[in-house]
Design a protein that fits this description.
Length: about 260
């Protein structure tokens, strides 16, 4: 749990060159994505290679405002669909899971199940017998992402055999800001990609303009040059029929 309190610069200094190269592969997968998924499957696959997870790897958004929480969006690249009994256990026994989405909706970090429960403590829970053990889950990680009020968003990784290591938690903590950006870009593509014939990159640029980012900041967020950003901004202005960033941002907020 102390990993979450370390500064980003200290985390960067704690990894090897090989790990740094592996992180860049995940980031590149997100930067190259063109699809309309709420979270890119290509990034989840890249994560599963970086952090081996044989039980489950996926992205989930849940509505936690209602008395009975419900899944709004789910994309799983590794894992089997839950049986009716497991689905029921999520609702009736989920309070036994210390990483339940209701407990961490405002979480701003990466959490690991083995930091909350020992192996013996887990085995004493009915939730373990009903959910974790049938799926061969020995440890679980949640990378929590920002979400609107009343919702929770997380990337989850689960595996059998061994617990997640501190090294793996460090890698996920370093990736989290990039995963947040990847999720935002996916949202921009879905919202603006089919609007006024904007390309997927123009949709991403428009989304960041609406969030008040400068051309230089957008360039760093999208791993492109400031000159390329300026060209995208010119195209956006022409397609939207506006002349200023303020007008483009207002258009984005209306839509």
């Amino acid at each position: 749990m102390g990993i979450r309190r370390m500064s980003y610069s200290r985390l960067v200094g704690a990894i090897s060159e090989r790990d740094a190269a592996s992180l860049l592969e995940v980031i590149h997968a997100g930067a190259s994505e063109r699809g309309q998924e709420s979270f890119p499957a290509s990034v989840l696959w890249a994560l599963s290679r970086l952090i081996p997870s044989d039980a489950c790897v996926g992205y989930e958004e849940t509505d936690i405002a209602a008395s009975r929480f419900r899944v709004l969006d789910l994309l799983e690249v590794i894992g089997e669909p839950p049986s009716p009994s497991v689905e029921a256990a999520f609702h009736t026994l989920g309070w036994q899971d210390p990483m339940h989405c209701r407990l961490h909706a405002r979480e701003q970090g990466v959490l690991r199940l083995s930091d909350f429960l020992t192996h013996r403590q887990r085995r004493a829970l009915e939730y373990d017998a009903t959910v974790w053990r049938p799926h061969g889950i020995e440890d679980s990680v949640r990378v929590w992402l920002p979400a609107p009020p009343g919702r929770a968003r997380a990337i989850y990784l689960e595996r059998s055999g061994t617990s997640y290591t501190n090294r793996e938690m460090t890698l996920l903590s370093l990736l989290r800001p990039h995963l947040i950006r990847i999720r935002a870009n996916a949202d921009f593509r879905r919202r603006f990609g089919a609007d006024r014939d904007l390309t997927r990159r123009e949709a991403e640029v428009l989304g960041w303009i609406a969030r008040g980012k400068t051309n230089g900041e957008v360039a760093r967020l999208l791993f492109i040059s400031p000159h390329t950003v300026r060209k995208h901004v010119e195209n956006i202005f022409e397609k939207l029929g506006v002349r200023t960033r303020t007008a483009a941002a207002a258009y984005a907020r209306r839509n």
